[in-house]
Amino acid sequence: MLGKPVIKGTRIPVELVLEKLAAGQTEDELLLDYPRLTREAIHAALSLAAEAVRDMKFYKLAS
């Protein structure tokens, strides 16, 4: 997957899981669409996203 993080033991990109959740798909719908996915893996994807945002630095630009 070109170095992008995937759900362990699958080829499901974390990015895909996050995009589906952001688009309004529920955990239950994801689990039906991707049988190899687990609820714990979905939560791990969310945790990874939170960690990535937490480590970001933001700078206010002068107007």
UniProtKB/TrEMBL annotation:
It comes from the Bacteria. SUPFAM superfamilies: Homeodomain-like (SSF46689). InterPro entries: DUF433 (IPR007367), Homeodomain-like_sf (IPR009057), WH-like_DNA-bd_sf (IPR036388). It holds the Pfam family DUF433. This is DUF433 domain-containing protein. It comes from Runella salmonicolor.
